[in-house]
Amino acid sequence: MARFVKSLDQLHVVAMRRKLSMQPTSTTEPLAKSPERIAFPQDWLVSLATAPLLIAALGTRTLHDLMLNLSTNSEEILRGDRLPILHFPESDKK
Fold it and tell me: Any residues with CB less than 8 A from the CB of 33 and at least 6 apart, and which?
């Protein structure tokens, strides 16, 4: 019986060690930061990427409107109803 109680105590100790090893490390210990890589929080990266994407979207819309206006104006210029009528002299056909 004593041997059974001793093995139960050892089992309890092993279980406690395993439980302690599975727990996360405490947050009071500072993490070592390497000088090569600085970690930014994801919300900072998203907020930093938002402004360039908005500027690109507005820029493409403005460029689209500019190209439409340019094509409309060039069509008006090259339409031909405002061009003068040129009278060529008849050449002698022989």
Answer: 39
